[in-house]
Amino acid sequence: MSIRAKSEVAHHPSRGSLRGHGYFKRLGPGIVTGAADDDPSGIATYSQVGAAQGLSLLWMAPFLLPLAVGVQESTARLGLVTGKGLGTLIRERFPRWVLVGAVLLVASANTLNIAADLASMGAALRLLVPVPAGMGVVLFAVAIGVTEVFVPYHRYSRVLRWLALSLVAYVLVLAVVHVNWSAVFARTFVPRFGFDATTMIALTAIAGTTISPYLFFWQCSEEVEERDDSETAAPVDRPHLIAMRVDVWTGMLSGVGTMFAIMCAAAVTLGKSGSVNIQTAEQAAKALEPLAGSFAKIIFALGIVGLGLLAVPVLAGATAYAAAEALHWHEGLSRRLKDAPGFYAVIIASMAIGLALVGIGVNPIRALYLAAIFNGLTAPPLILLIIILTRSRGVLGEFRSGPASLIATSVAGIAMTAFPLIALLKA
User: Fold this and answer.
1) 55 phi and psi, to 5 degrees?
2) How far apart are the first and last CA of the chain?
3) I want to staple 203 with a disulfide (CB 3.0 to 4.6 A). Which of 5, 81, 329, 419 is the partner?
4) Cα atoms in the 13 Å half-sphere on the side-chain side of 427
């Protein structure tokens, strides 16, 4: 039986044509994935690296962009063609210990990130309005949890797409600070860095934050969610794959572009002022005020809140998809609570544990840099599984990935393995 006949997967109905008016609303999961890549923990990591390393690591933006696109395009291809999430495909094709290890790694990293993001959002809200940070954390956690569980997916996904506009905040910050663009250009396209342990750890953190394991599960599962089961929906074909690539490129270009803006702004402001010990996203926002004015601080803080509202449900959702697919539960944000109780229980538990970590005094914000490194260590084995799946004729048939995708994902896995190994050797 052919792949097309086996799955009859219907493509996101409006993404088949991305030309003309209404382009933004016709984008699929790629734009949400790209924006969620710049969650508050990512903002903290990019700010810390920019403040400490200056402009020297800006070359990571053009280097990581095609690699991130390659990995996300591969996961999107798996979901689009097979109609199955990444956890399901791993369960069907690999030994159980591989599945359990993958789910545990993703779930632990996601829960820590949720706690860190909620804490950052509460602190950022306090920079905007005079409310206790703890109150903001609770309000955000409850609002996100209720929305993700009870709002129908077709409405919820639109909200996530509009929240992606929060990325513009960091472009605006870069526009109001003084930048030596000739130096930026030189550092962006002419890599200069040392092989010392500190630099290699920074590269591991940047790569782990940009090519994050939770995005693999989210992208694949959301391609499945975006299917339309109506009689007029067409099965997957080459034009659908092309439209999917445009969607993924749009999302990752916005995500990596924002990474570049944050690192650059931090380097030319915080780094030059000597504020190299930036541990949190809200510290970066507050430190910008005396250097670039209140406008920069407010925009930076608004971006933290907006992207947190987008990223936290993605983190919780990715954990739920991974767990539900591993345990063969009914899953999907398009299902009602009573139809997928286990799936939604994982979302609620993820939010509750993240909230508890903040409430009991464990300060996960201080561990953000380590969380980014942990993501960097977790990604390579998952990327290897993705390569095996996307090159399998038994999984994708005629739609298996080509040489360009194979090269991009392979280089991503190799680079993310080499960075921590060199850091360990140099330590």
Assistant:
1) -85, 0
2) 53
3) 419
4) 8
Q: CA 248, 252, 256: angle at the middle one, nearest 5?
A: 170
Residue 126: φ, ψ to 5°: -65, -25
* pLDDT at position 386 over 60: yes
Number of domains in the chain: 1
Of 190, 27, 205, 213, give the one whose Cα is nearest residue 104: 213
What φ, ψ does residue 131 adopt, rounded to 5°?
-125, 150
Q: Is the pLDDT of residue 150 over 90?
A: no
CA distance 108 to 329: 20
Domain range enclosing 10: 3-426
Q: What are 235's strand-pairing partners?
A: 10
Q: Tell me which amino acid residue 166 is.
A: S
pLDDT, residue 4, reads 39
CA pair distance 348, 362, nearest whole angstrom: 20
Q: Are 87 and 107 in contact (CB under 8 A)?
A: no
| Confidence (pLDDT) at 114 | 87
More reliable by pLDDT, 343 or 167: 343
Instruction: Report pLDDT digits (tens) over 190-224.
Output: 887 788 888 888 888 888 888 988 889 888 888 88
Q: Which residue has the higher pLDDT, 125 or 62?
A: 62
**CATH number of the domain within which 59 lies:** 1.20.1740.10
Give the Cβ contact number of residue 392 at 10 Å: 15
